[in-house]
Amino acid sequence: MEHLYYLVSQLPSFKTDDDSGAKLPITTANFKDLCQRFMSAKNAELARNLTLEPPLEDAPTGSVFLDSWYKKERDLRFALAQLRALKMKKDTKDIPSVADGEVVQAARTVTGMDSPLSAELYLNEYRLSVLDKIAPLDYFSVDAVYNYGLRLMLTERIKKFNRDEGLASYHKIYDDILGEDK
Questions:
Q1: What gap in Å lies between CA 182 and CA 179, rounded to an integer?
Q2: Tens digits of per-residue pLDDT, 123-142?
Q3: Which of 16, 17, 74, 117 could form a disulfide with 54 if both were Cys (CB 3.0 to 4.6 A apart)?
Q4: Is the pTM of this model over 0.70?
Q5: Within 13 Å of residue 152, how many CA atoms lie on the same side as its CB?
Q6: What Å distances lie between residue 92 and 34, 95, 169, 180, CA to CA?
């Protein structure tokens, strides 16, 4: 039996654009645990399997919201792969083409950026805007819970980014590729 009102009322609000470094009031693990306790077995399983990486093959989940999210994210990843392959003069025949102009434009914008951090921040904002566009109107629906979980996962991911650690990692990888030791 589902108790979505109880579940949603326990989910704390958080800001997706908070740069203060403040800790989120809930973790993805805690969110998924709450879902297991207050959702039906089928919906709790979908919540437990929420991911920012959609399956390569389009398979219906049983949720129109999740199907829309996974399609947009899959298309974004394919568009990015195509543009990166073209930039490197690689063959793109095995990468499915993307017809969604908005997704292709977002991918083009990102591939034109010089800073990997700026590109990731842009992609995060784009993904959050996609969630805003497809968000259900009913705050106490199963899809609203999935939306919350995806937003939480995106926010957790972006909070892990650290400029100094990223630059150090970039330089290490760059030096490894060039075979330079310092």
A1: 10
A2: 999 999 999 999 999 999 99
A3: 74
A4: yes
A5: 22
A6: 42, 5, 29, 31
